[in-house]
């Protein structure tokens, strides 16, 4: 299986959105950059914040698109074209309504599940759905009519702690995932209960 060459953290740009549930994927990439001793910097050609890091000796491209969520695909496609990265070499970190706070799951391929960031990335990659996803649980408001307000809302203290715990476990399993050892990465992450 191809190794992961880039990790994309989805979110919306700007201070108004920085602490909202929809930015859980962006939080992961920001923390990963900090742990690697660097920070994400604006990169116009990738329509986002970018850094190159090493994780267990492997070079990784980190990208947080600064387009809005529903336009994430252009940033991902620009990065892939510039560095010749295939969809199956991507790991896209995003918030997931169908998973409770304190849990996260790896997945390869599949549809967008109503997530506008994934929908736009799939479209921008020529309908190739083969990229890996890191689904960070934020829970569901219980009513589909409240989803937009919910994902653009800030989590409470306990919920934020649970999401942070899951992100910490995601970061601990990333070296396995990036090296292509998906079975071990999934086994550890999927058994985590934050």
UniProtKB/TrEMBL annotation:
GO terms for molecular function: peptidyl-tRNA hydrolase activity; tRNA binding. The record marks 12 as: Discriminates between blocked and unblocked aminoacyl-tRNA. GO terms for biological process: protein quality control for misfolded or incompletely synthesized proteins; rescue of stalled ribosome. It is found in: Cytoplasm. The active site is at 22 (proton acceptor). Pfam families: Pept_tRNA_hydro. Belongs to the PTH family. This is Peptidyl-tRNA hydrolase. The gene is pth.
């Amino acid at each position: 299986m191809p190794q992961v060459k880039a990790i994309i953290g989805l979110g919306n740009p700007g201070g108004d959105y920085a602490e909202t549930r929809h930015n859980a994927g962006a939080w992961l990439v920001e923390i990963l950059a900090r742990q690697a001793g660097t920070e994400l910097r604006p990169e116009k050609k990738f329509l986002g914040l970018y850094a190159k890091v090493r994780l267990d000796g492997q070079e990784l491209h980190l990208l947080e698109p600064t387009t809005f969520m529903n336009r994430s695909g252009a940033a991902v496609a620009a990065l892939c074209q510039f560095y010749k990265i295939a969809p199956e070499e991507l790991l896209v970190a995003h918030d997931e309504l169908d998973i409770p706070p304190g849990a996260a799951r790896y997945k390869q391929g599949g549809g967008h599940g109503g997530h506008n960031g994934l929908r736009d990335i799939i479209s921008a990659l020529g309908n190739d759905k083969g990229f890996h996803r890191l689904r960070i649980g934020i829970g569901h408001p219980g009513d589909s009519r409240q989803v937009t307000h919910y994902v653009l809302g800030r989590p409470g203290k306990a919920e934020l702690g649970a999401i942070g715990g899951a992100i910490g476990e995601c970061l601990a399993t990333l070296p396995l995932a990036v090296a292509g050892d998906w079975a071990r990465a999934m086994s550890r992450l999927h058994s985590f209960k934050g």
